[in-house]
Structure formats: C-alpha cells, structure tokens
Specification:
about 65% helix; alpha+beta; elongated; Alpha-Beta Plaits
C-alpha cells in the first residue's frame, strides 16, 4: 500500500497508472466471480482510488503550506545575520503600537563600518555586522524583536516601556557581551546605541527619539549608549 501511495503521488501519470492497475485487477477478478462479486470488487477499487486521491490532496496541501512557510521565512530573514529584516519589521511595527504597556526602542549603529569596508574589504565588514548581531542576541531578552534594517543599522523592539534601571541593566548586558566577544575573537565592533520609550504614540516617533539619543551618545564617546530623555536633560543643564 505504501508503494502504491508513492506511485499515486507521482503526478498525473502516476494516478493514471494506479487507476489502470486497480481496474485491471478488478477485471481479472471479475472473470472468476459472479456479477454481484465483480461489482463489489469494482466498488472496492473505486473506494481505494478515492482514498488515494484524498491522501494525495492532504499531502499536497501539507507540502504547499511548507513551501509558503519557507518563502515567508526567507522573505523576513536577513541572510547575513539570521536576524529579521526590514520587511519583517514593517509587519511587527503595527502590532507593537497596540501594546497597552507601551514600547521601548533601541537603535544601534556600527561605528566605522564604511572605513573597515574600504580598508579591509567587505568580508571584514560582514564579520563586524555578524558580531554586532551576536552582541544584540546575547544581551537582549527573549521578548525582544531584533532587526537588521540594512547596512550597519539595527533596531530592537521591546514590549513595555522600560524604566531607567532596566535601561541601565540593558546597557551593562550589551557592554558585557561586547567584552566577551572581544576576549573570544580578539576583535569586536564598537557600537553607538540610543534608547527611547513611549506609550500611546506612533512607533516612528519613538524610533526618532532613540535615533537622536544614539547621535547624542556618539558625540560624548566613540562607544556610546544614551537614553533620549536623559540626554535632553543634560543638554538643558548645560544651557542653564
């Protein structure tokens, strides 16, 4: 029966061949049976064909679902890092805005990637990008959604608005992940990071604030980390 199923699944020719085999078997059996027995044999053959057809349709449906899932996965996956890409971000962004607990956005850039590409080649630059992805994976919680938006830019989305202590803990985790990588591979990318939280507002506005925080941190030190609200407070203190 298993080999018959395999033959039946083998396209249109396989189905025709199965039908002919079952029909021939029923005809051969009918030569030695009464009309009633022959009709019963033919009916059983038809039932077998229908069963095979149902099994085939179920198998085709399963394979089709697998192909769709593979295509969806590939379309939302960054090939270099294995992180989710900009296309996946556009889908998740809408859901994030609906979160009643608010959201926290981390924006991250790799410092000096263009210089590395120009000096040592794109393979060296690709290595830095993969290392940056590794740092973010190791330092961000399971509830975080990490995206490579393209080039040297990464965005991490957290459900819930983080408080100061949580942001400082995240900062420490990122620094420790970078230090571990530096020790293991003797090289690690320097990252500029900005964080902003928000409730009941558009995600793009929170990203804009996180982006401003990143550039504020970059002004202070080459390897920076800043929360937007505190960066602004410091700027206001300077003005006073």
């Amino acid at each position: 029966m298993h080999s018959l199923l395999e033959l039946y699944y083998d396209g249109k020719k396989g189905r025709i061949l199965c039908g002919l085999l079952i029909g021939a078997a029923a005809l051969h059996a009918g030569e030695r049976q009464s009309a009633q027995e022959a009709a019963l044999t033919l009916l059983m053959g038809i039932i077998v064909l229908l069963t095979l057809e149902c099994s085939c349709l179920l198998e085709e449906n399963r394979r089709q679902k697998m192909r769709i899932e593979e295509l969806r996965y590939c379309s939302e996956q960054d090939a270099l890092t294995g992180l989710k890409n900009r296309y996946a971000f556009s889908h998740i962004a809408c859901e994030m805005e609906k979160c009643e607990e608010g959201m926290t956005v981390l924006v991250c850039d790799i410092d000096g990637l263009k210089n590395v590409n120009d000096t040592f080649g794109h393979l060296a630059g690709d290595r830095l990008i993969r290392q940056a992805a590794q740092i973010l994976r190791q330092s961000c919680t399971e509830r975080a959604e990490i995206f490579r938006m393209g080039g040297d830019e990464f965005i991490v989305l957290f459900a819930g608005a983080m408080n100061v202590s949580e942001i400082l803990a995240l900062k420490k985790q990122i620094e420790q992940a970078g230090q571990r990588l530096q020790k293991e591979e003797r090289t690690a990318p320097t990252l500029s990071v900005g964080v902003a939280s928000g409730r009941g507002e558009k995600l793009l506005m929170v990203i804009k604030r996180a982006d401003q925080a990143m550039y504020a941190s970059r002004k202070k030190e080459r390897r920076g980390f800043s929360n937007f609200q505190y960066a602004i407070i410091e700027e206001e203190k300077k003005c006073k």
